[in-house]
């Protein structure tokens, strides 16, 4: 996964770069196989008076996810934006796994007859 980092209205420091790359590693567990090869993770960090904005966009071969967060502390903003992205990726991964499992299930239909003790809904006795 390729990580691109952009800072606006602030200095680019090695410690910020290291923190961003460390946070980016948390997303690799959701991108397995071919999805990880072509994935590009774009971080955009911006500073306004008393507010830090971070936008995170993940481009893959067949998907695009984005999240953004704002807070007074830049490191807290990193945590917020990663949490939002993880929730999106986990939801997508769960849907994909469920789709695979349900694809191979056979449909089973049950029929009940009056001989087995079941009555039609229309013929139920009213009190």
Description:
The structure is a single chain. 13% of the residues are buried. The protein is elongated. The chain contains 3 helices and 4 strands, in the order βααβββα. The protein has one domain: Ribosome hibernation promotion factor-like (Double Stranded RNA Binding Domain, 2-Layer Sandwich), CATH 3.30.160.100. The protein has 127 residues and is an alpha+beta fold. The model has no long low-confidence stretch (mean pLDDT 82). 36% of the residues lie in helices and 26% in strands.
**Separation of the first and last Cα atoms:** 69 Å
Query: What is the residue-averaged pLDDT?
Result: 82
Name the CATH superfamily assignment. Ribosome hibernation promotion factor-like
> Roughly what fraction of the amino acids lie in strands?
25-35%
**Principal-axis shape:** elongated
Rg over alpha carbons: 25 Å
Q: How many strands in all?
A: 4
Question: Order of strands side by side in the largest beta sheet?
Answer: 1-2-3-4
Helix content: 25-40%
What number of domains? 1
Q: Specify the CATH class.
A: Alpha Beta
């Amino acid at each position: 996964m390729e990580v691109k980092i952009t800072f606006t209205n602030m200095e680019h420091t090695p410690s910020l770069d290291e923190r961003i790359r460390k946070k980016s590693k948390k997303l690799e567990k959701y991108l397995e196989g071919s999805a990880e090869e072509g994935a590009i993770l774009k971080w955009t960090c911006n500073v306004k008076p008393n507010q830090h904005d971070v936008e995170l966009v993940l481009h893959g071969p067949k998907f695009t996810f984005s999240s953004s967060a704002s807070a007074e502390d830049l490191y807290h903003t990193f945590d917020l934006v990663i949490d939002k992205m993880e929730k999106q990726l986990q939801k997508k991964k769960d849907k994909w796994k469920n789709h695979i499992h349900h694809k191979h299930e056979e449909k089973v239909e049950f029929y009940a007859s009056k001989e087995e003790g079941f009555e039609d809904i229309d013929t139920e006795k009213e009190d």
